[in-house]
Structure formats: structure tokens, C-alpha cells
Design goal:
Blueprint: H1 2-13, H2 32-40, E1 52-53, H3 57-70, H4 74-86, E2 106-118, E3 133-146, E4 149-158, E5 177-187, E6 191-197, E7 201-202, E8 220-227, E9 231-244, E10 250-264, E11 267-280, H5 286-289, H6 295-301, E12 307-317, E13 323-332, E14 347-360, E15 363-372, E16 387-388, E17 391-392, E18 400-412, E19 415-426, E20 453-467, E21 470-482, E22 492-503, E23 509-511
Antiparallel strand pairs: 1-7, 2-3, 2-22, 2-23, 3-4, 4-5, 5-6, 6-8, 8-9, 9-10, 10-11, 11-12, 12-13, 13-14, 14-15, 15-18, 16-17, 18-19, 19-20, 20-21, 21-22
């Protein structure tokens, strides 16, 4: 870890001459993104990336202020006002201070209290379990920064962690909790760097990225970005949890991913490489720490063993005709001359989406399709699986496809709603399961293995800032299920939903 600390110090100290005003990130699970998505679907906030999150509070505020200044419909003005209110806990500027003003070092503390009622402790409602639950929770926020420095800490107390099937931490606590965010970083004109934990998503908005997403619980990593909003290279470097081998030895696991992004006018695109590398006693390797290296060449030329994936992201904003996006993942591409031992079944995934398609006035419709193959995120070396504590670093599931179609409605003030129908087919492929034997490569399905679990759903999701102090997010609908949990003949139709009510007190403690 010494090398990582040296690199972190270098990136934080080297570009001090390139001054810019830093701002903490707005976590991607914040209600602010419900308003951001609704506004972007209607052609607003064009300065924000369509393919990379989280945004900083300052970048959202600047985009929202510009949209308000240009004028907007009554419904969109309500969204913009609600968005700006949701940013207050992340902002370090005082009223009247301009974006161009340099802010002295400040810190701000706040908290919220919530209750969540749900019919499933599993996050994905299309694959809901049968465990109803209702739990109170609380979150504490501490944001700080000044000049080119910014950071945040968010701690949560939430007993849903004790029942969450994806949570692998301690589950016998009377009060469960974890540090959801905790990072410090620098933001300059041509460079950014941050070290700590915060959820990131690379891919079309409103969908989980195929290579990097917020699906896993947040983990500590080093993030760097060099360049401008129009052209930049960004990277994430992380040490993951060790994998215990059958002989008791612990294999160290590391994750490296980098991305070249280009934005011009209405188009935005990116090329990315992801890498998982492991080994007993193996440490961080400079060839994979270097964001300007080409992993797919070092992989073979320098014999850097690991699991390589490649991705392509693309988004086109067509004004009032919506936004079209695509994301392609190639998890296994065979280009070597070899015998049958390396001719593994293809591993891939892709997503296509259309958002903000015109209906009437401020109403829009949307559609998306995603497919992840049977062996995606999966390798013969089980310690190289593309996951953090058992949850995919990209998508949380493999071996499935899903189509979703619906209406993005602006009928209720300050309340973006999405009425949708969805169809999902889930095979038995699982990146946490043993990899097929070499002898089975030829007969292993590339997509939808075993008994197929099928779900049809009609639902309504939304978010609302009911008052300045009260927020509600919800998703409810009817699931028609066949072969539930891959058991032939286990069919059921049931309501599945989740609602979260959050009280956000106006009490903010500011330190300067």
C-alpha cells in the first residue's frame, strides 16, 4: 500500500498551480438524481455528463442555475427548485457567494431520519424475495472543503443490513451500520483526484454501468481524472477483499479500471478497460496503476495475469427528440492461438436505451433493453471474479436480459414519476458459482442456462420533495412470476414494492 500512498500524495500535490473551486460529490442514491434524470430527459442540464456519475454539488448547482435563468415550464421550475433544495447539505458556499469566488475552508454537519417499508429485502424488485420488512434508519453527513480541496463522510445506521442477502458484514448487531461515504480529494482545472469510498457509475444515466456501478456496497479506491469535460482520462484503483483458497492461503485481489472519454456538442462517448488481478502475496502493480497504460497490451506482452474486460459507451442528445445511449461490455475476447483449454464460451453484455422521447407537453416516454451473458464477470480462477464482497462491480447479476418501456410523467408538482412495464428472463448463470469444466465448454449455454426464471412487472416509481423537510421515494408494482428461484412450476403473482420516507431537518451546523 506504500506505492498507493505515494501516488495519492503526488496527484494531490502536483497540480496545485491549477486552481479551481472544489465541491463535495452528491451521492448517486440521493433524491437529487431523480430530479436530474427528469430534467435531463427534457433536454435540460446539458453541461452534466450523460455517462459518468457522481456529480459534484457545484456542477449540479451551476447547471440548475443556468436552466432557471433561461426560463422553464412550471413543472420543470418545480423540479429545479426541489433539486436546489436537495443540494443544501452538500454546499459550502454561503448565499450571495458567486461560483467564481474562492471559498475559504469550511465544514458542514447534518443528518436525516428515515423509515423504509418493503416487500423484499433483495434490492432488485424484479427478483423479489418473500421477506417483508419495515425498519427505521438514520444518516449523518459531514462535508468539508475550501479552495481546491473537498471531502465528505456519510455514516448510516440501518437495520435492513442485518436482513440484506447481499450484505456479507456482521449481521447479529442490534443496530447495524456502515460508512457509506468517506473520501477526500482535490479538484483543479485540468485534474481531479479523490481517495476513499463513494459510489460511482459509468454508463447511460438511470441504469447501472456494465463495468463500474453503484451495485456493490461502497469500497475504498483511488480516483483520478486528467483533462477537461470534453476530453479526459479517468481511472479507479482499488484493493478488494482477499479470497481464501482451499489450502487456507489468502489471495490478494485488486481492481483497476480506466476510461478515455470524449464529449463534443450533443455526443459523448468513452472507451474503457477493466482489470481484476489476484495472487498470494501479490501487490499493487505500476503497469496497472498507470491510467495511460493499455492494459490489453500489458496483459500479454508483460505477462500480467488477470481478468480483462473492455467497454464502449455512447450517448447522443437529440434535443426534444430525446437521448439515445448504448453500452457494450466484452468480458472475454479470444485472439490467441491455442488449444481447447482457452476457448471459453463468450462473455459479454450490452445495454441500449432511449430517454426523453416526446409525448405531450412535459410528458416523455422511455425504453431500454439490457443483456448480460451466462459467464460474464466469471473466470476459471474464482478469485478473479468481477465482484466486491460477492456483488458485481458492474451489474449485480449475470445471465439475464430485461426490456423496459414506460412513460416519464410530470403530472404532480415536484414529483417525477415513471410508469413502466418490464419483462425479465433470469438464467441460473452466476459469477459466484464454479466455472464450467474444460470438457463442458462446448455445451455451456452462452445465455440463459438452466431453468429460466421469468418476471413480468407493471409498476410506478417516483420521488417527491413533499415539503422542504420531507422526501419520499417509492417503487411499487405487480410481479407475474414463472419458475421463481429457478424451480419449475413455482408460479406466483404478487405486489412487490418499496417506499422510503426521509425527514431532513433544517438544522445545519457550519464550521469555519
Amino acid at each position: 500500500m506504500v506505492s498507493l500512498r505515494i501516488i495519492l500524495c503526488f496527484v494531490l500535490l502536483a497540480p496545485l498551480s491549477l486552481r479551481a473551486q472544489a465541491s463535495p460529490y452528491v451521492p448517486i442514491d440521493d433524491i437529487a438524481y431523480s430530479y436530474v434524470d427528469a430534467l435531463m430527459a427534457r433536454g435540460s442540464l446539458p453541461t452534466l455528463s450523460a455517462l459518468e456519475r457522481p456529480y459534484t454539488g457545484g456542477s449540479i448547482r451551476a447547471a440548475a442555475d443556468t436552466a432557471l435563468a433561461r426560463g422553464a415550464s412550471r413543472a420543470m421550475t418545480g423540479y429545479l427548485n426541489a433539486l436546489e433544495k436537495s443540494l443544501e447539505r452538500y454546499e459550502l458556499r454561503k448565499p450571495g457567494e458567486l461560483e467564481s469566488d474562492s471559498v475559504p475552508f469550511r465544514a458542514k454537519a447534518s443528518f436525516d431520519v428515515s423509515v423504509t417499508a418493503e416487500t423484499s429485502t433483495r434490492h432488485e424488485l424484479m427478483l423479489a424475495d418473500t421477506r417483508d420488512d419495515a425498519e427505521p434508519a438514520a444518516s449523518g453527513y459531514f462535508v468539508f472543503g475550501g479552495g481546491s480541496l473537498a471531502g465528505a463522510v456519510r455514516a448510516i445506521l440501518d437495520n435492513r443490513l442485518n436482513k440484506d442477502p447481499d450484505f456479507t458484514g456482521k449481521k447479529d448487531r442490534k443496530i447495524a451500520g456502515r460508512t457509506q461515504d468517506g473520501y477526500v480529494g482535490g479538484q483543479w482545472r485540468y485534474a481531479q483526484a479523490a481517495f476513499g469510498r463513494v459510489a460511482r457509475n459509468w454508463g447511460p444515466r438511470a441504469l447501472e454501468g456494465l463495468q463500474l456501478s453503484g451495485a456493490p456496497f461502497t469500497y475504498d479506491h483511488l480516483y483520478t481524472r486528467f483533462g477537461t469535460d470534453q476530453l479526459h482520462v479517468s481511472s479507479v484503483i482499488a484493493r478488494l477483499e482477499n479470497y481464501v483458497l482451499t489450502d487456507g492461503a489468502q489471495s490478494s485481489r485488486y481492481f483497476a479500471i480506466h476510461r478515455l472519454s470524449y464529449k463534443k456538442g450533443r455526443y459523448e462517448g468513452a472507451l474503457s478497460e477493466g482489470y481484476i488481478y489476484t495472487g498470494v502475496g501479490r501487490g499493487l502493480e505500476f503497469s496497472l496503476l498507470n491510467p495511460f497504460n493499455v492494459y490489453s497490451l500489458s496483459w500479454r506482452n508483460e505477462r500480467v495475469d488477470g481478468n480483462l474486460s473492455m467497454g464502449f459507451e455512447s450517448s447522443w442528445r437529440a434535443g426534444r427528440f430525446g437521448t439515445y445511449a448504448a453500452h457494450l461490455l466484452i468480458d472475454d475476447l479470444q485472439i490467441d492461438k491455442c488449444d481447447t483449454t482457452c476457448k471459453e464460451p463468450s462473455s459479454y453484455g450490452f445495454t441500449v436505451s432511449a430517454e426523453g422521447l416526446p409525448l405531450s407537453a412535459d410528458q416523455r416516454w422511455f425504453a431500454s433493453y439490457t443483456l448480460v451473458s451466462n459467464l460474464a464477470y466469471h473466470t476459471p480462477n474464482v478469485s478473479e471474479r468481477y465482484a466486491s464482497f460477492g456483488i458485481g462491480l458492474g451489474r449485480a447479476y449475470s445471465d439475464y436480459d430485461e426490456i423496459r418501456l414506460g412513460a416519464d410523467l410530470a403530472l404532480v408538482p415536484r414529483t417525477p414519476l415513471r410508469l413502466y412495464v418490464a419483462h425479465r428472463r433470469q438464467g441460473e448463470g452466476d459469477y459466484r458459482a464454479p466455472y464450467p469444466a474444460v470438457a463442458d465448454y462446448a455445451t455451456t449455454p452462452r445465455f440463459l442456462s438452466g431453468v429460466i426464471w421469468t418476471v413480468n412487472r407493471i409498476g410506478l416509481s417516483g420521488a417527491s420533495t413533499v415539503t422542504r423537510d420531507l422526501q419520499i421515494t417509492a417503487d411499487g408494482g405487480i410481479n407475474q412470476v414463472r419458475n421463481r428461484r429457478h424451480v419449475a412450476g413455482r408460479d406466483i403473482t404478487a405486489f412487490e414494492g418499496r417506499v422510503k420516507i426521509v425527514w431532513v431537518p433544517r438544522w445545519l451546523v457550519t464550521f469555519q
